[in-house]
Design brief:
Shape: globular
Largest sheet: none
Number of helices: 9
Number of strands: 0
CATH architecture: Alpha Horseshoe
CATH superfamily: Ankyrin repeat-containing domain
Oligomer: single chain
Distance between the termini: 64 Å
Low-confidence stretches: 15-25
CATH topology: Serine Threonine Protein Phosphatase 5, Tetratricopeptide repeat
Number of domains: 1
Length: 155
């Protein structure tokens, strides 16, 4: 590589890294998007701030996810517990007719499944596409979750 190309690369690389950085501040179109993002990332402090500001913990973002759904899908147990304590509805459905329990089951988050069941999540729910929490847990061969759901009455 000649000196001119090397210098050009060295001058543009920092701009490229800054532009492509994942640490850039995201811009959200609604408060729900911001709260769902914080829950997804497991940002307990930010979620607690939203709760302290009396934001609706059941609001949905543009993808029809609630903060609880995002936290459950990612296995963020501490955030799930925060949201449940703040009144998050555990049986709310997204546009795919899945609830937080189903999202936790398909991803194998057994502690989150346990917390959601304790909070009243319905293990018997069947989506319009005939999907159940047990069926989704079976996809991933999450035997501990299947046993938990059966014990709770799921089929």
């Amino acid at each position: 590589m000649n000196a001119r190309k090397y210098l050009s690369l060295m001058l543009t690389l920092p701009f490229f890294l800054v532009y492509c950085s994942s640490s850039q501040k995201k811009v959200f179109t609604s408060p729900a998007d911001d709260m769902v993002d914080a829950a997804e990332r497991g940002d307990e402090k930010r979620v607690a701030e939203f709760i302290a500001q009396k934001q609706d913990v059941n609001q949905k973002n543009l993808n029809s996810y609630t903060p609880l759904m995002s936290a459950a899908e990612r296995g963020n147990l501490a955030v799930v517990n925060l949201l449940v304590a703040a009144g998050a509805k555990v049986n709310t459905l997204n546009n795919f007719s899945w609830n937080a329990l189903m999202l936790a089951c398909v991803n194998g988050h057994s502690e989150v499944v346990r917390a959601l069941l304790a909070a009243g999540a319905n293990p018997k729910y069947r989506s319009p596409n005939d999907e159940t929490a047990i069926g989704l847990a079976a996809r991933g061969q999450h035997e501990d979750i299947i046993a938990m759901l059966r014990k709770a009455g799921g089929r």
